[in-house]
From TrEMBL:
Domain Core-binding (CB): 19-110
BP-aspect Gene Ontology terms: DNA integration; DNA recombination
Organism: Protochlamydia amoebophila (strain UWE25)
Protein name, per record: Tyr recombinase domain-containing protein
Domain Tyr recombinase: 136-324
Keyword entries, A-Z: DNA integration, DNA recombination, DNA-binding
Entries under SUPFAM superfamilies matching the protein: DNA breaking-rejoining enzymes, lambda integrase-like, N-terminal domain
Top-rank taxon, per record: Bacteria
GO molecular function: DNA binding
C-alpha cells in the first residue's frame, strides 16, 4: 500500500519536478543536456548552422542581419536540407520556434543575442503580416520572462504588497506551472484546490477539450525560491484576500475592494500585457502565453512530450508539437 501511494505521488508530481521554478547553475547544465536531446530544438539549431555555412556567415554569435535574412529565406523559399530532402517554406509557428532555439543556443554559449532588437522585430512583424493572421500564434512567456515579471511586481512600490499585486503574482505563477487555459484559470474555486505535502493538487472539473465534466488532477509543486513559488504565492493571496470560499481569482475595484465575481479571460490577458517587464517589448503576448510558455519551457528542459501533455491536457501529439 505504501509503495502504491509513493508511485501515485511520483506520477502526480512528475512534470512539476522537471519544472522547479529556480535552478540557477543547475538549470543551465540541464538545458545543455536537453538542448542536445530535444530533437526539435537540436534540429532547428542544426538547420541554422547549415544555412550559415552555405552563406559563409557566422552562426555564433549571429548578427541581427544574419537572423533576419535566415528567417526571410525559410519563410519564402523551399530548400534542400542536410539529408537531401526538399523542405517547404516554414509557417509562423515553426519560424517562431527557430528564433527561440537560436536565442537559447546563444544564451547557453553566453553569447550576446537579443531577439527583441528593432532589426529583428521589424522584419518579424512583416513576416507575420505577409503570411497572414490565421497562422499567427502568440509568443510564449518563457521561464526567464516569468521571473522578471514577478520581479517587476515586487519592485513596484504601488503593487508589491497590494491586493492586485498579490493576486497577479499568484495568477501568473499558477497559470504557468499549471499550464492552464485562461478560461480554466478564472473558473477555479476554493473547492478545486488542496494543499498537500508536495504542494498543490488542483481539480479541473471541465476543460475546452472535455466538456463532459471529467475531472483532471493538476500537480503544482513547491518552488525552491519563495518569491517564485506558485504554492506559497497562492497561499499569500488567500491570506491577504481572506477568500475562503467561491472563486479563486476576482476583480479588484478602484477602491481596493475584492468583487464577488470571476475575472474574465480578457482580464488575464491585460494582467500579462500591462506587466512592466513586457510593456515595452514588441512581442505578441496574450493570456495564452503562459500555457504556451510552459510547453515551450518544458521542451527546452527535455521533458518528454507525453509528460508535457499530462500537464497541459492535450490529447494530440500534433497539437503539442506546435509549441515545441
Amino acid at each position: 500500500m505504501e509503495n502504491q501511494l509513493a508511485i501515485q505521488k511520483i506520477e502526480n508530481f512528475e512534470v512539476g519536478e522537471y519544472l522547479d521554478l529556480v535552478k540557477t547553475a543547475k538549470e543551465y547544465a540541464t538545458f545543455a543536456r536537453s538542448f542536445n536531446t530535444n530533437k526539435s530544438y537540436r534540429s532547428d539549431w542544426d538547420d541554422f548552422v547549415f544555412w550559415c555555412q552555405e552563406k559563409n556567415l557566422r552562426p555564433l554569435p549571429a548578427l541581427p542581419q544574419t537572423i533576419v535574412v535566415y528567417l526571410i529565406s525559410r519563410a519564402d523559399n523551399a530548400w534542400i536540407n542536410q539529408k537531401g530532402k526538399l523542405q517547404k517554406p516554414l509557417k509562423i509557428s515553426s519560424l517562431s520556434r527557430r528564433l527561440t532555439s537560436i536565442s537559447q543556443a546563444h544564451k547557453l554559449a553566453k553569447q550576446p543575442f537579443d531577439k527583441n532588437c528593432p532589426e529583428i522585430q521589424e522584419v518579424w512583424k512583416g513576416i507575420k503580416n505577409k503570411l497572414g493572421s490565421a497562422q499567427i500564434r502568440k509568443d510564449p512567456i518563457l521561464l526567464d520572462d516569468l521571473r522578471k515579471m514577478i520581479e517587476s511586481i515586487n519592485n513596484d512600490n504601488s503593487k508589491a504588497n497590494s491586493l492586485s499585486g498579490m493576486r497577479d503574482k499568484a495568477l501568473l505563477l499558477l497559470g504557468f506551472v499549471g499550464a492552464f487555459r485562461r478560461s480554466e484559470l478564472v473558473s477555479l474555486t476554493i473547492d478545486d484546490i488542496k494543499f498537500v505535502r508536495e504542494g498543490l493538487q488542483i481539480t479541473l472539473r471541465k476543460s475546452k477539450t472535455d466538456q463532459e465534466g471529467k475531472e483532471r488532477i493538476i500537480a503544482i509543486p513547491y518552488g525552491s525560491n519563495i518569491l517564485t513559488c506558485p504554492v506559497r504565492t497562492l497561499n499569500d493571496w488567500l491570506d491577504c484576500s481572506k477568500i475562503s470560499e467561491g472563486l479563486l481569482f476576482r476583480p479588484i475595484n478602484r477602491h481596493g475592494q475584492i468583487m464577488d465575481k470571476a475575472l474574465t479571460s480578457k482580464s488575464v490577458a491585460l494582467i500579462i500585457k500591462r506587466n512592466k517587464h513586457l510593456e515595452n517589448q514588441k512581442n505578441s503576448f496574450s493570456g495564452h502565453s503562459l500555457r504556451a510558455g510552459f510547453a515551450t519551457t518544458a521542451a527546452i528542459f527535455g521533458v518528454p512530450e507525453h509528460l508535457i501533455m499530462k500537464q497541459t491536457g492535450h490529447k494530440s501529439f500534433d497539437t503539442i508539437r506546435r509549441y515545441i
